[in-house]
């Protein structure tokens, strides 16, 4: 998994990797050459009292050391550039793939784990790449080169190398074997704690309303304690590694001094050669130790790579058409625009004036793993330029039905068509231009009100935004709205919006979401119970404004209040995923018992139907 992921993203950085290899090779050769020069100075300069020789070889040592430092710094720079670039590219790949996920994939993974995989998991891979680029040449060449140079200095002590290196490797392998399952558990624990924190932050008002702070604090404490316990167990193994490696290094040093001293005393080796041998042995062990640190990161990075690849290899259940079909209405508008450019005439009005029909043909939909379908054999046509309302009890499938139009889900069976073209044959761009959705749960993005309103049409002019706000009954509060103080104060369309729109009320947030869709001027307006947060008076004003603003466009409305849909050209009554009534308000009062029950349950003195 890890190699597959890196192979995908290393290609643009082959030049950086080659530079790292060359520079590391230069730095290591210089490092291996220095102990030999040091031995030469001791044996041929210090021992003989030749000061000139010491200066000459010392100058050469200084030059070699400078080359080693410059090469090492340059290698780290190229390695850092490559690893940071790979991390950026992997994060971008995850974001691009997640952006194409349908609601099904989002529900299967969950927001918390997707955030962890796009941040913490990628960071683990990124750090492994950085360590590998800095050590992939150093560890093997330093180890092999150090062994060769050490044996060349004193073959009689070479057995110390063959004993100390395997001991060090055995210690490392035992620790890595223990760490692998712990790293897997740690990543899952990070998912869990992110999920708990996200849920508590998003639902903080509910927590406070029910005075459940203590309970939620205990939930977080539990998740935090689990992560802490896993981290401590990993830390204990790392703590063991440090002393174990240090003991091996110190024992090797003592052994060199003990056995080497005896060989010096016997005249079998010179002092300089013994010093060089000890330095080479330490270099070998340090190289093994550095490789150990890299391999300690490998298990966690391997697990992180599996989680990242799982996201990247998940194909979206709703694939875009390879050869998308155009909407006939788009082709007609393009022809009109071409004629207008040729004749110099005024172009036709916006797309909202050219509605398209929406048709459901025997549509069935079931959520993955569900025992029964939510929608079963639904067939109807929402004629162009008319308003079609959908009403029914909770769980009847209203929102699911409406979500099939902008293709948030794909029908399990049957077809959803816009202007005679199945939505599965339209490109995402064409479908987005044709259908504007106001969701049941309004959501705003951090930025300004103007930026949020231009989400559907980045080229919308300020006067168009104000028209949309006026229709959504949001002009007054937007015009009076001010955020910031002093030189940072911003008003109107430039006033700030926090993430999720938490700095505006629920009703204001809903009206801004309605205005955002109106500003895009789609051909089909889809309102998914989008007036629930509005009072009766504001609801009536918004509906009156919509009737004029969306004239000529096709409108689909899911509503709970009967008063919201009495003026619809067609009302569909859903019950257990089936259409049990259709017609106008007056017709359904006579023909549909289910509809009459809904009406009777809502009739009040203050809100006559």
From TrEMBL:
Any Pfam family hit: ABC_membrane
Location of this chain's protein in the cell: Cell membrane
Bilayer-spanning residue ranges: 12-33, 53-78, 127-151, 157-176, 237-260, 280-298
GO MF term list: ABC-type oligopeptide transporter activity; ATP binding; ATP hydrolysis activity
Alphabetical UniProt keywords: ATP-binding, Cell membrane, Membrane, Nucleotide-binding, Transmembrane, Transmembrane helix, Transport
Location (main, coarse): membrane
Record carries keyword Transferase: no
Source organism: Candidatus Brachybacterium merdavium
Residue intervals of the ABC transporter domain: 358-601
Gene3D superfamilies xref list: ABC transporter type 1, transmembrane domain, P-loop containing nucleotide triphosphate hydrolases
Membrane-related topology note: Multi-pass membrane protein
SUPFAM superfamilies in the cross-refs: ABC transporter transmembrane region (SSF90123), P-loop containing nucleoside triphosphate hydrolases (SSF52540)
Name of this chain's protein: ABC transporter ATP-binding protein/permease
GO cellular component: plasma membrane
Domain (ABC transmembrane type-1): residue spans on this chain: 18-300
